[in-house]
Every structure is written in C-alpha cells, then in structure tokens.
Amino acid sequence: MDLLLPSYVSLSKYAHLVAFIFAAICFEKCILLFLPNCRHPVLASQSFHTFAALILALALTFFGVAVAKRSPTVKVVDVFIDNLPPELDGFSIVQLTDIHIGPTVGKQRIEKIVTLTNSLNPHAITIVGDLVDGFTEHIGHQVLPLSRLKSRFGVFYVTGNHEYYHGDVNEWIDLFRKRANLTVLRNEARVLTSGHRSLCIAGVDDLYTEKLSIGGHKMDAVKALNGCPDGAVNILLVHQPNAATRIIARVKKHIDLILSGHTHGGQMYIFWPFAYLRNDYLHGLYSEKGVDCFSNLLEKLARISFIRLLLWNRQFQAVFSLIVSVCISLVCFMSADYIYVRTAELPISNLSPKAEGLRIAVLSDLHAGGAVHRDQIAHVVDRTNDMNADAVFIVGDMTDGTIEHLESRIEPLRHLRSRLGTFMVTGNHDYYFDDALAWIRLFKSYGIKVLTNSKADLEGICLVGLNDISSGTSGIPSHEMNISSVILECEASKSVIVLSHNPASAKHISESNLSYNGVDLIISGHTHSGQFYVMLPFIYFVLPYVHGLYTVPMKFVSHNTILLVTAGTLYQGPPMKMPFYSNIWQVTLMAKRTSEFVDLD
C-alpha cells in the first residue's frame, strides 16, 4: 500500500508533463504560423520548452502533494432557508465527503479529521459518499476512528460510487453501522427534533447504482423523502451533484438543502475542465428554485447546465461525432493530394563557389501502391520539373508493393529532369516487398543515382547516401546503415550533405566520431508529420524530430548540423493528410560566413 503513493505521484508528474508538452506543441505551432521567422530561444526552442515543461511538472506535482498532506481546512457557509423556524436557526452541520480511505489516506489522517470535526461541536455530521477505496479485509481497521465522531444528533452517511468498486458493498455498510457507529441512509430518512419543529435528513444510494444490478441498491429519492413529515426542513444527502439535478426534476416534495461531493472541485487543475463539463455543479453553494445562497463567479459559470446537456448527451455525442468525423475525413481526403512547395535557404560551411545558390528539390515518401497511383506520381514529377531545380533528392519510401504490380505506377520517375541529376536513398518500406535490390536496379535504369552507403560529388559537395536505419534486418548481406566509413571518405575541406530516410539517424550521426569531417546538412523524411492529426502526438514522442528544420549538435566536432525533415510528398495507406500538407522542399544552398550563427531549434 505504501508503494502506491509514489505511483500516484509518478502518474501526476506524467499527466502534468503531457499537458505541458501539449501546450508547448500548440504554442510552437502558433509561433510558426504567426511568427515564422522568429528565432528567439525562449519562443522557438523546443529544447527549452521541453525542459520548462519538465520543471513545471515536477514543481507543481510536489506542490500538490505538499498541499494534500496538510490538515483539512474548515470552510464555514451560512445557508439561508425561507421560513426557517426560529428553533432551527443556527443549526450546524459538518459535511465530510470523498475521504477515500485506502492506499493514500490512512488511519492517522482519519484521526486528524475526527479531532478537527469534533472541535466544531456540530449539531449533526454528514458523510456524503466515497468514504473508502478498498476491501474490508484490507482497510476496514482504518475506518474505526470514525466511531469517535461526536454530534448531538449523530453521524449520517450515504454511499458514493467508490463503495461499489471493491467487493461486496453490503460488507462495508455492515461495518459502518456496527463498528463505525454511522447512521447509513439508504433511500430513507431520519427526523431530528429541535424544540417543536422537525428537521429531516434523507439520504439516497449513489447515482452509480442506476447502472448496476445489485439487489436492493438503486437510487430512490421519492422513497427517501416520503420519510420526511410535512412541514419539516428537508435536507437530502446525495453523493453526485448530477444526481441532484435528476432528483430536483423528478421529486415533487420541497427540498431545502442538498449536500453533495464527488467532483473534488476538479482536484487537480488540469482535470478541472473535464470536471466542469461532466457535472452540473462543480464546487460551492448554488441556488435552485428559490433557495438563497452565495456563489462566486466561478461557481456561477459551473452551473451552465446546457453545456453538459450538449456535450454529455449520448444522442448529441453520436450525431456530433458523426458530423465531425465526416467533415474531418472530407477535409483530409480533399487535401491529401495537395502538394505544397516549401522553400528554405540553408547556410553551409566550406561551400564551394560553384555550389553557391544551388537549388535542390527534395522528395520523400511517395509510397506508390495502395491508394497512390501512376497519375499522382506523374503529377509529382511535373511539379518537380516545373521547379527547374539543379538537383533532385529522393529520401526513401518510394514503394509499397512488388515490382510486378507497381512498375507501371512508378515509371513516371524516369522523366525527372534536373541539371545535375536525381539522387536517391532507400527507406524502410522499400525493404518490405519483393527484393530491395531489384527495386534499386529498376531506379538505376531510370537514370536515378541510388546511393547505398556511398557518396557522390555534387559541385564540390560530398553527397552521402545512407541505407535506411532498418536495412540491417532486411537479410541483404552487408546492407546495414554504415555511417562512419562513408562520411570519413569525404575530404575534410568539402561540405558534407547526408541523405538518410529516418530522422532518428541524425542522432546516430551526431554521436559518431567523424574525426574532422563534420556534417553540414542531413535530409530525411519518414514521419509524414504524423500524416493524420490523431497520430501526431505519438510520432512526437516516438521520434526525436518530426517535421521542419532542426539544429542538431555534433558531439565530436565544433559546429552543429542542420536537419531537414519533410512531411512526405504523398501518403501511406488511406488518402488522408492533416494538419500538414504533402510537400516538396526547394532548398537553396548558401555559403555560411564564419561569423554567422544559425539556430533553427
């Protein structure tokens, strides 16, 4: 049981981290959209945002733990009831709720609550559900301090949803009655007399019982309130505030005060929006049908019940989900074949004079096969040729099938035109179907220079092409990605550009001892930028680089490397693309001056 507290703390840290990382992603996308040229480290640095998210997650988690371990505070609320008899004026009730005795709330905590409650000297004490989180044989002894609760008229208890989660709820009810001296109200009432006037406390089974089939357990407010005499001041105990909404609508008998819990006020602020939308009442004192009360602005906002009616109504959810799904699917389908040309001018060290201003078209992830047909490949070729680039780079994942079925679809690639030719490397999908070497031979027959762990001279630039990071599992002898041996063949005085399908290879390159041979630019694809927005968070956490331009620090040389990750020129699987369009990059190489520092992070 003691081990569960660190587990909950770890879960809290993770929830905070996910929330802050998501906020950072949204912030970065807004910066990219509205301030595309911003390079301020606080605004544009993913590393800084990740570090800040981690620090905030840790700090707020431990602050929350510290606050939770403090003794409970007493909140005094005056409830004004119309026509309240003078004999009941000043009648005091202590409300306890959601104590959750169990893994993180032990006997010592309960004893503090009992001592604090008794010091208030109330007329009555109410416990409004979710008292325990566990089985009677494990934590039954932790409940026993409640037997020392003292008030003039007793201690009244109703079940919450958590009492039904562990074992037989009747075992807990017997223990509460016999050993904790609680008056358990199960769709029943107790009449308290003060002077010649009556106050009736009624209680109902939790709303959760309407979903269960446990004999004798079902919320019945009519039955409970029938036990209250006419003219009495009626107080109803019901664990969930959503049950209060139903009861008010169904019951004809007047209710002066309803006491509920369940929401924890959201408990942790990152869950507050969900608690706000899921419950008709969130926290505090509310007025319904003329009962006077005080409430702050936040509490008034939480009473906008039509929001819950819309967002949590099953019929509305089904219709809304269907409409949104159809609309998003149509948008994704219509935008799948739209190809956006992105441009970038990249500073390169030791760039030869004849390579100054060299324009390169970058393609990736065509995935011929499935939903990608010949006319789409031909369209990509036409768009690329219209750019009139000096060279064309293709960074893998060209095919999703066998040569027998796809040769006619991929054939338009033979018509790619550029002054210096087309250079290509393999991607992981190029190894999934048929013989990858057969595909390589076919591409070479089209005049494409396929770089398989090899290099080529491009206007004085050492252009290195690496086999895909997964090629070592292809079964082709000596075909695994080989970083050092190829790059070390480049002359130290030359600029080095590396084509490698998977951007994860950038980490391997940055940590390789390349002696004096640094890498100036790495060009990758593979991620599709998530392709479909629901996949983007997973891609973001799985891969270190997702889309766009990054600065990658080199471990053994003094300068950094620029990494370009494309969003893919077409798509894999269903013809859907959102939020990033398919793209072709047009990269212009510029000489980097010695005093120039570029931070693309």
From TrEMBL:
> Which UniProt keyword terms apply here?
Membrane, Transmembrane, Transmembrane helix
* Name of one Pfam family that matches: Metallophos
The record's InterPro entries line, in alphabetical order, gives: Calcineurin-like_PHP (IPR004843), Metallo-depent_PP-like (IPR029052), Metallophosphoesterase_sf (IPR051158)
Which chain regions cross the lipid bilayer?
Answer: 14-35, 47-68, 318-341
- Which GO MF terms are attached to this record? hydrolase activity
Tell me where in this chain the Calcineurin-like phosphoesterase domain is found.
92-265, 358-529
Q: Which domain of life is it from?
A: Eukaryota
Q: In its keyword annotation, does this UniProt entry include Repressor?
A: no
Under what name is this protein listed?
Calcineurin-like phosphoesterase domain-containing protein
